[in-house]
């Protein structure tokens, strides 16, 4: 029996990870979800899992020492997967304080609780000695690396510098790229926003616990995720919703900023692999080989929705506008975000070659699946949108 503590499991990626793990490991697994249920965490996202006897849900804050210590004591946790975070860059610009509290203090509190619970006071040569088979996995982001240069001239074929990776990814994934620089695990951290500064600090604490106390840890640094249950303030779900409502689609600046997009289930698979097969103490970058300018993402969403609506007229009842209005004229350029990073691009050679992971879902397939999920789950969206988000400035939309 393996027992997982999944923090932030009522949020977008955490919930998708829990769903993936429960489906994959039908026996021998227990998951304790701890989530503060901020505006971004919703029990409706994990409704089925709450009824699963393998899952325990605890409403709690990762900064709460008593609560976290009690969870370790009660549930004999083997793995911690720390998703809990304030995750929205625009919110971090408006209110950095809570990012420091949750993302840094919360992570350090979890590290300390794991250290105490997993050693039970045992030491050798002054270092703590840990129970076999335990690990702390910090879910981090490519944003800690800062921003890459980009040439807008033309997309060119990515020259994969590793033959093994080339074989693995074959033509399953888009290999377009907007530059020849990539983030590797050796890239120096250079966070630019309060969000990425808080995530980088948390990464340093994780590394410090590994070095100072020999805590078994991994850090994964992933690019932008998309998929079901993504909170509607983020780029892709916001655009889908605005298309359905016939509202303008706000695009920062000229829409030329480049992000790498990964289907969320592929991220869950990567975390599962790193947790069980990753070398202790290592950082693994996780990326989708799927760089795209924001404007191209927005255009694709418009085109895909329009296409689905024409092929399957039953979905037209979801439209609050005329089908003819679903076109690129909905795009509305708005003032750029402060300090908007130009390009993020991940080099996932290490996880690909060491652990055999690769992004399995091509973007064309993933985006259609995602759009269909939103079309089929408007009740979920409405429940979320009727809450705190309705008071939120709709211009603020990106990760
Ligand atoms: P999210 O905002 O959808 O979910 C965060 C969850 O954490 C919510 O359920 C929220 O209620 C919970 N939470 C917040 N503060 C908490 C606290 N103090 N104690 C307990 N729970 C708390 O975020 P997400 O997009 O699912 O991201 C999850 C993690 O993955 C984050 O650490 C983020 O930095 C990282 N990440 C996200 C992306 C992405 O594209 N979304 C990419 C790479 C890495």
From TrEMBL:
PANTHER family: DTDP-D-GLUCOSE 4,6-DEHYDRATASE-RELATED (PTHR43000). CDD domains: dTDP_GD_SDR_e. It is an enzyme of class 4 (lyase). This is dTDP-glucose 4,6-dehydratase. Its EC number is 4.2.1.46. It comes from the Bacteria. InterPro entries: dTDP_Gluc_deHydtase, Epimerase_deHydtase, NAD(P)-bd_dom_sf. Belongs to the NAD(P)-dependent epimerase/dehydratase family. Pfam families: Epimerase. Residues 5-287 form the NAD-dependent epimerase/dehydratase domain. Keywords: Lyase. GO terms for molecular function: dTDP-glucose 4,6-dehydratase activity.
